[in-house]
Amino acid sequence: MTGHLPRRTLLGGLAGGLASATGAGAGSAWASGRGPGGRAAAAEPYVPTAVGKGGGPAGSDRVHVLKVGPASAHTVLVLVPGMFGAANDFRLLAGDLVRAVPGVQVWALDRREENLADRTGFATPDPAAYYLDGHYRSQDPAASGYAAGWGLRLTLEDLRTVVLTAGAGGRRRVVLGGHSWGATTAMAYAAWDFDGHPGYRDLAGLALIDGGVLGAFEGTGAPVQDSPEEVRERLAAIEGGAVFDMTLSGVGLGSRAESTQIWYQLAGWYAHRAPEGRSVLQPRLPDALRTPYPITNAALLGTLVDAGFGWPNDISVHSGRLADSGDVRGWIDDGSTPISRVAAAYAGPTPAVWEWYWPARLSVDLDVTDAYADTDLARSLGLRLRHGARIDVPLYAFQTSYSHGTVVTGARNAVAGSRIPYAAYETDEGMNHLDPLFAATAHNTATRTLAAFLAK
């Protein structure tokens, strides 16, 4: 497999490369009122919301929200996906939460970047041919200069539109959270100055799932790249046309910004629809990622996402193993995260789990946000992190084995430097970075402990 990739690369979860978004393929099963497997999706609408101008192509000045749970709920948990992540990261977790806590609805955000992806191939009989033979519409970085300005400021302005809509003019409480860099985004929102209005005043609480600020990722062995020299170099590269973060190209599944995400969504799509069928994708995999014997569609997805195949913690789950024998080897679940749940989430097509085009400028801004202070460097980037010391809402922080303890340490540091009245710190060292998103209900410590926090 691949070597360990930089922390920036996989904060949203590389374990399965779904696609994440709405875009040209918004006429999907979800948009037509049906969810994965053809089930009714009336309780899980996927809703477009107009946001401010961002300079992108027609149709990109909007975000989408996946809503799970009763519209009459008095508390809305708004969740932000991590790097390369998207709204469907949270659908399974959201369903568990709303069943566990009466009066809660979960809104999962898809950023405006989701509008750039071409999902239409997943409505064809042979999506592998559509994508792997190059028939889809790809974003050319040379023609995407607008993305150079798609940083944290624009993301938070878009997010505030969602938060205020969820709050319904103060009639509902809003808890803001996220996974990985989505948790960092939530903390940035709380500290942000929106033209004199502190972000935390919009919120009733914060929920951090395996992410955050103040060294939350130090334990991963890949600290943030936030020195002034590194920032200058990265900004110069963006100015030179490198507007999309290319880290996922290091996986070995293609050299375009979206290549890996397409492969992972295809793997989920086939594993969801024909799990026991012989793998459609195996003959087309690069040699380094291909097993020497035939496997099923479910087994191929397992080899891409399971920790047992050498993937780094930040891109894997504990799912199971390949069968020991058989003409076509299948997948055996013996971990906390059944491969069928991963497949159901990854299959999409809309909403999906992967964002195809992550703005390089957003990576820079989130790295600089780690210091969680109104520094000269932050101000030079237009980051309005002015109110961290005044945050006065409860906080929940959950960590897996991913950070070796620094997620909770970072959360404790944030609480100590603020007016946060109380915090809940939870740990499950048996989980990898993506397990909280897809683990079976009975084995998901994050769902159980976050439900307890919300119930308070």
Instruction: Count the DSSP helices.
Output: 13
Main sheet specs: 8 strands, mixed
Question: Looking at CATH, which topology would you report?
Answer: Rossmann fold
Q: Number of folding domains?
A: 1
Rg, rounded, reads 20 Å
Shape verdict:
globular
Percent helix: 25-40%
Averaged pLDDT: 90
Secondary-structure class: alpha/beta
- Name the strands of the widest sheet in spatial order: 1-2-4-3-5-8-11-12
InterPro entries: AB_hydrolase_fold (IPR029058), TAT_signal (IPR006311)
Organism: Streptomyces dysideae
Protein name: Tat pathway signal sequence domain protein
What would you say this structure looks like, in words?
By secondary structure, this protein is α/β, with parallel strands linked by helices. The protein has a single domain (7-455), classed as 3-Layer(aba) Sandwich (Rossmann fold), CATH 3.40.50.1820. The chain contains 13 helices and twelve strands. Helix 5 packs antiparallel against helix 9. The protein is globular, with a radius of gyration of 20 Å. This is Tat pathway signal sequence domain protein. InterPro entries: AB_hydrolase_fold, TAT_signal. It comes from Streptomyces dysideae.
List the topology elements.
Layout: E1 46-50, E2 62-68, E3 75-80, H1 91-100, E4 104-110, H2 127-132, H3 152-167, E5 173-179, H4 181-191, E6 193-194, E7 197-198, E8 205-209, H5 228-239, H6 259-273, H7 297-305, E9 320-322, E10 331-333, H8 339-346, H9 360-369, H10 376-380, E11 395-399, H11 406-416, E12 423-427, H12 435-438, H13 445-455
Parallel strand pairs: 3-4, 3-5, 5-8, 8-11, 11-12
Antiparallel strand pairs: 1-2, 2-4, 6-7, 9-10
